[in-house]
Amino acid sequence: MSARILVVDDDAAIRSTLAQQLGEQGYGVMLAVDGHDGAKRFDADHPDLVLTDLAMPSADGFALIQHVRASGDTPIVVLSVRGGDADKVRALDLGADDFVVKPFSMPELLARLRAQLRRIGAKPQLDFPDLSIDVERRRVLQGKRELHLTPTEFSILELLARKAGRPVTFDEIIAVVWKGAPGTTNDAVRVHVGALRRKLEPDASNPRYLVTEPWVGYRFIAEPLS
Amino acid sequence: MSWSSDSVKISRVRTALGLIAALALIGLVTLVAVLVGANATTVGFAYLIVVLAISIFSGLTVGLVSSIAATACFNFFFLPPLHTWTIADPANWIALFSFFIASLIASRLVVQARMQAANAEARRNEIEALYALSIDLFAATNRVGALGEAATRALARVGATGGGLILFDGSTNVQRVVAWIGPREDEVEDLAAGVGRHRQPLEFPSAAGSDVYVPLVVGGNVVGVLVARGSGATPRALESVAALVALAVERERFIEESSHLQALRESDALKTSLLRAVSHDLSTPLTAIGLQIERLQRKVGDGERDTVADLAEQTGRLRRRIENLLAMARLEAGNFVPRPEPTPAADLFRQVREHLPLVTNLRVEVAPDAPDVLADPSLALEVLVNLVENAHRASLDGAPIELVAHRHPLDPKRVRLEVLDRGPGIAERPMEGDTGRRGLGLEIARSFAAANGGDVTLANRPGGGAVARVDFPAAMLPAVAET
What we know:
The structure holds two protein chains of two kinds. In chain A, 40% of the residues lie in helices and 23% in strands. By secondary structure, chain A is α/β, with parallel strands linked by helices. In chain A, strand 6 and strand 7 (131-134) form a beta hairpin. Chain A has helices at residues 12-24, 35-45, 61-70, 85-94, 106-117, 151-162, 170-177, 186-200, and strands at 4-8, 28-32, 49-53, 76-81, 98-102, 125-128, 131-134, 139-142, 145-147, 167-169, 210-213, 217-220. The longest helix of chain A has 15 residues, at 186-200. Chain B folds into four domains: 3-123, no CATH class; 143-254, Beta-Lactamase, CATH 3.30.450.40; 260-332; 338-473, Histidine kinase-like ATPase, C-terminal domain (Heat Shock Protein 90). In chain B, 60% of the residues lie in helices and 17% in strands. Chain B is built from ten helices and twelve strands. In chain B, helix 3 packs antiparallel against helix 4 (144-157). The longest helix of chain B has 65 residues, at 235-299. Chain B is rod-shaped, with a radius of gyration of 47 Å. Residues 430-437 of chain B have low confidence and may be disordered. Classes of the chains: A alpha/beta, B alpha+beta. Chains A and B meet through helix 1 and helix 8 of A and helix 6, helix 7, strand 6, helix 8 and strand 7 of B.
């Protein structure tokens, strides 16, 4: 069964374009014109994912995020604009799962939606192009070469890879990898991720697995091989 | 004002009445003593008491006159030889003299006490005037005119017949007469300027009695001059009035300034929300257009492919123009607070690529020892995107553009990002046509770098072309043991 996506945007052109292109990709699409309308459609139709604009005349995206979060963990992807970094971070804090910055491209949006709808679960082996992570034996193979990671680096990689395509916040990394140890700072995370990247990235100048999400955390960008 | 001549009249009447009463009293004592046939000692004491009482109630003049009258009566009626003006016994001279001394001392004491009382009364009046002024001043809010009225009321209360309040606008030469009573001569302006410059009160005799100029000083600044003419008030009272007025003037300025700031803040908030709305309203249709073009690119046949590619390119340019305009507007709105974060150069370079898909010949290189950049990531990205775009415009098709990051060669606390092209170099760059656009991009890069503690320099590159260098602060990450 294909996933059903609720698209909430006050702009008719965006609504129709997204309805058309998501439809072509096989998603079920329902539309709403603002936060109020979106909340009503959400309650009535229980979509698998909510894709919402932030700035809307009546009941903005933030109100909708709170409404959706109050009733469960349905993935929420927000559409923000350049220069709206503060809005983006606020949306994530309220419980949004990801963001796409307008103007975006369709492949970019589809990758984000796939990542949100994907459920990797407790798979023992995570496979990506040229990279496989054996969770049980805690081994990482790049092609045929084994990477020697410290336990901390491995834990960070496992967390990010399980959430491939999705942003993972500093707080989440500290909570999972350091078990929320007091005194663990974002800078400590940065140092370990830096070390991980030096071992993981074949070309340090052109990262292909891990990227920084400004003010948020990191994102593992390689799509898993299914 | 006729207050002082009135008081002179009143005191003359009091003296005359006191004299009549004193002489009547002495006459009465003499009559009673003669009728009763009292001895000289008893009568002497009675006279002494009467003279003392008269001195206390009526002052020095009446006291002296009564002591002479009492002495004459004592001598004439009670000292042998009786009913003559001569004194036989030298001891009686002593009695006579003691009358004089007693009346003199008593009246002096009384006069002193009176003067002190009068001084206390004057000071009480001054304090009352100051109190009333302070109430006036602090009730007179938001209006410089009200300040002037309060100042002139205070001047009238301390007995001034003229004068007023002169404020300086930044300099002692730029004067504003807020309030004035009576005629104002030309030299008032010069005198006020002089007092303002020397910060010392000035007092000199004039037609009105005396003119006093007191500087208004707040926090070391002279904000104006208070002028009191013909005032009987003490210099200290005038200085207190001046101090209060100065405080009120300062308060007026604060109120003016804070309402100005309030207006500025509101206009900043308006700019921010306008920018946000414009940014959203421009980005949304662009997104829709971009998505439709992508779809067309997948669907059209070979014949139309070039047209659609051209459409995509033009749309990309439009998007960059709008982004630059919005970036410039955000910068000019002045409310853009950078939020610096340690950011790896490789991530910035990656984002540059994503923002400029048309710049296909971009090579990146991050030196292994390059520290993370400590800057606002979105501003740092804007800096690089603009510099790469400028380099792209200056380059021939296919000429590579390089994006390089390494530690600053001289300052280990900075990181240097370089954009290198093989275009015509700096001096030879075309000065007309798209210079304006290039200039805007460079200006945005410079402004955004500066907002992050960075700077941009342009130089010619050895072997041809240009290099734009951006120096940012380096992020100092802690060293962590391998775990």
